[in-house]
Write a structure and sequence with these properties.
475 residues; single chain; four-stranded antiparallel sheet; binds zinc ion; alpha/beta
Length: 475
């Protein structure tokens, strides 16, 4: 274990609504944060929203809203959604907050003294959807951005540059030696082969983007929004002098989408290096969902609202499904049909049934009273290591082996019979089951906090009663 744990999610663009694709890394980060918190490690979990850039300004105009109001309202949708999904961050950063803007300005002033910043002419194809320059080879046959189906603008302007090209060797060395960890392996290899091609310098400012933070030494320019956004990980901690910054930086883990790894695994550490700040320890890139086999897209309108899912199936069932179905780090397909199959199978018939059988046996035969809690008859501590390694689906599968074992143990030992014929054996079986279920709840708590609490408090009651179904049958 570590002496502290600082974990972040990507910050989400406020012109998108929260959907299962953004809920996925956020729930994963929450599971890790809870895991470390429960183990007694000082933990800081950050999420938030990215609120600058032309795309957002245009969305606000389209919505006929003042931009400040637009970003505030849309940011609130994210914090509300995360709350409904049981996500409990220690802080929620918005890049339009003054604490963030002040920290970014202070960071850029420091960067300016590094000798790695210079002025130059930039010409490039700017995609507003990406808020980034594209290369001619990134475009489709019609000369459009393949992701946004729009023609990028040819932008020619005076900009400030960062000498990113100076950092290729250092990046390669720290990534190869795992001093800076990139997972999964496929993403690490992707970054290493990108570095092997050599790095070009990047622009750090824009003249034509108005809704952004002014560059402190050249007020005609604004700071490139991507760089302003990356700095949220430090600004939220109170960079440069905050106590939290001193305690928690560098980040132990940035969870990001696989589409933004160049920003997090190349540009971000190089900027930190130039400013003399420590690098994050690890970046983990999660995969993407398709929905019923199709890419999530605004035009298809197939984005699934996680709040609707939580209302129908319960918060913990959604959390369980998100992390059980697809190995974290790989792509996979999301479908309501699969969610319902896991709900019926794993949750209602598995864990729910075990809890209901045990509490019924105790209520009917022991007057609701069991003895002192014993040690669990089964050990499955490898679950902890799986969680630490972000192998959530394996951790859950391992816990469910124990649930299956316990249900079979009931079938085999027939406690409803021994309750009448062999009270000693009956009591032993019940004590074993109670201890095991208690341990299962403990291991499950980071994933399914409400369910774990329901089980633990039911089993700790002075008089245990026949429990209500944990996962009622779907209608
Ligand atoms: Zn684009």
């Amino acid at each position: 274990m570590t002496d502290k744990f600082y974990i972040t999610t990507p910050i989400y663009y406020v012109n998108d609504k929260p959907h299962v694709g953004s809920a996925y890394p956020t729930v994963a980060a929450d599971v890790l944060a809870r895991f470390y918190r429960y183990s007694g490690t000082p933990t800081f979990f950050l999420t938030g929203t990215a609120e600058h850039g032309t795309k957002i300004l245009q969305s606000a105009e389209k919505a006929e809203q003042n931009v400040e109001e637009f970003v505030r309202e849309n940011s609130a949708k994210f914090s509300l959604t995360w709350g409904i999904l049981g996500v409990a961050p220690d802080d929620f950063i918005r890049t339009t907050e003054s604490r963030h803007e002040a920290a970014v300005i202070s960071f850029f002033e420091k960067l300016k003294t590094s000798g790695k910043i210079y002025e130059g002419q930039y010409e490039g194809l700017y995609c507003v959807g990406h808020e980034a320059f594209l290369k001619p080879e990134d475009l489709n046959a019609e000369g459009k951005c393949p992701d946004h189906a729009t023609r990028p603008e040819l932008v020619k302007e005076q900009n400030w540059f960062f000498k990113l090209s100076d950092y290729a060797d250092l990046l390669k060395q720290k990534i190869s030696s795992n001093e800076f960890v990139i997972e999964p392996e496929t993403r690490r290899n992707e970054i290493l082969s990108f570095l092997n091609q050599g790095l070009e310098d990047i622009t750090i400012s824009r003249q034509h983007v108005k809704w952004a933070i002014p560059l402190p030494w050249d007020k005609k320019q604004t700071i490139y929004v991507w760089l302003d956004e990356l700095f949220n990980y430090c600004s939220a901690l109170g960079y440069p002098d905050g106590e939290k910054y001193k305690q928690y930086w560098p980040a132990d883990l940035h969870i990001v989408g696989k589409d933004i790894i160049k920003f997090h695994c190349v540009i971000w550490p190089a900027l930190l290096e130039a400013a003399g700040l420590p690098w994050p320890k690890k970046v983990f890139a999660h995969g993407f969902f398709t929905i019923d086999g199709q890419k999530i897209s605004k035009s298809l309108g197939n984005a699934i609202d996680p709040v609707e899912l939580a209302e129908k199936y319960g918060t913990d069932a959604v959390r369980y499904f998100l992390l059980r179905e697809i190995p974290f780090g790989q792509d996979g397909d999301f479908s309501v049909k699969k969610l319902e199959a896991r709900y019926e199978g794993d949750l209602a018939n598995g864990l729910g049934n075990l809890f209901s059988r045990l509490t019924t046996l105790i209520a009917q035969n022991l007057d609701g009273e069991i003895g002192e809690k014993k040690a669990s008859p089964r050990e499955f501590d490898e679950v902890n290591v799986m969680i630490q390694n972000l192998r959530f689906h394996e951790a859950l599968a391992r816990i469910w082996e124990e649930i299956a074992w316990a249900n079979k143990y009931i079938d085999d030992t027939k406690p409803w019979e021994t309750a009448k014929t062999d009270v000693k054996l009956f009591t032993e079986v019940i004590d074993n089951l109670a201890a095991l279920l208690y341990e299962i709840a403990k291991k499950l708590a980071p994933f399914m906090p409400e369910t774990a609490e329901t089980i633990r408090s039911a089993l700790s009651a002075e008089r245990i009663v026949k429990a209500e179904p944990l996962f009622p049958r779907l209608k």
